[in-house]
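User: Sorry, what's this?
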Amino acid sequence: MMKMKPMSLLAWTFLALLFAWPVGSWAQTKPFHLQEATIQDIQDAYKSGRLTSHQLVQLYLDRIAAYDKQGPSINAIITLNPNALEEADRLDATLKSSGFVGPLHGIPVVLKDQMDAKGMPTTLGSVLFKNYYPDKDSFVAEKLRKAGAIVMGKTTLGELGGGDTFGSLFGATRNPFALDRTVGGSSGGSGASLSANFTTVAVGEEGFASIRRPSTWNSVVGMRPTAGLVSRSGMFDGWPEINGSLGPMARTVTDLAKLLDVIVGYDSEDPLTAEGVGHVPGSYQKFLDKDGLKGARIGILRESMGIGSEPNSEDFAKVTVVFDKAVQELKAAGASVVDPIVIPRLKELLAKRAVSVTEMDDAFKVFFGRSANSPFESREQMMQAPDFAEVVRYAQERMRVSSDDAKHYQYLIARDQLMISVLKVMADNKLDAIVYKSMEHQPTLIHDGMNPPYVNTKGAPHLNTFLVFVPVVAVPAGFTSDNLPAGITFMGRPYDEGTLIKLAYAYEQATHHRVPPKTAPPLPGEP
């Protein structure tokens, strides 16, 4: 047996220092980089004294100044919070005196300009509301502030909260990956702000495909939770409508889970949240498992169901190439894939989508009824405004929305039938989730969206918002041969957000497809 030589004093000293090194010290000395910074990166830098909230907000403001209205002119921000730096200073002082105020201490967030944040106008992207200042926060904005978040500003969206990200107040938002293409809608400004590193996290809203589409086309992560988990009070198109849900958007699944933890909860002002009571776990972060796909059963839904999709087109085929690769990546990460699954009468039932005759008018009154200074007493009065002709130019589809009791009744029947069919397919195949293309086409050219025939929702699946009570999460899946972002959507059973977060996180960690756009590189001197 070989005799070991005694260690030198230097070696013993090194080992002693190594084992005495405080846990987390590497994180505290690791250089901070603004590009792609996560909540953890930022808060580690706060704890070590390498960064202040004031400095972080200023860094983001510098990027917005350089890239949003200048340079590539991404045009994702409608309003900046004039008190953001002051709020950051208060948080810095509190950190020194008593520590973090909450789980999002000092984390900048932007909001789709469809929800109220006191001190900033809620414009809905429209000239009609450019001077409308609500007198209190939305439920979500209030929860964010209490958690320590800094509301940096309000982002662009489809006129009056729907459609692609074009608005009479701001024009069009440009995709950071291809400036001649749309960011998708209607939470496009939130998606572009994340992608261009104007903020850490964002909140969007989806009533059709308004979180998944911009998340996919901006190569970020987005979730539309099951209806009833997140309150819509202080959100245009909220109660008594049920299709629209607020949801978290982020560059990573981890940050998405942290944001979701903060914004969920019951709110008596939005009765739909009574549906979510009892369905919220202690924290969604406990589902972050990099091995989450091992042994999972995933059903692959290949049937084209996007609005106006052209399955025989070259554009559609380019997205299919990415999707096929993603299916192989799911297998490589340990998933058992059922490919394909078939949902009976899928497109037939989806075609029955309709809105209630009174929902939009009632929701209008509920939203503006929260404020003492409503600009209009009713939706009908809004449509009589002098500037309304300009609004119609940007909201062609929104203005054509109509229904009748018979169509809405048929939709409600179809919704129940399709929900049962989806759940039966999942049960028969013992599925943990269904996966389909987040978007079936590449990002639309802005010219084609803003001019006849006004291409808008082309390629957008809307299965989840048709069903209302199912969650989805969209995750980057790479890029097409045209270097345009594509993604996959995980859809699950009602209130099974935790499982979707586990699967999406495992896919993200196995692939790391998220890449920042080249149009918004680090600024000179930016850490």
User: Anything to note?
Assistant: The longest helix spans residues 405-428. Residues 53 and 90 are 9 Å apart (CA to CA). The radius of gyration is 23 Å.
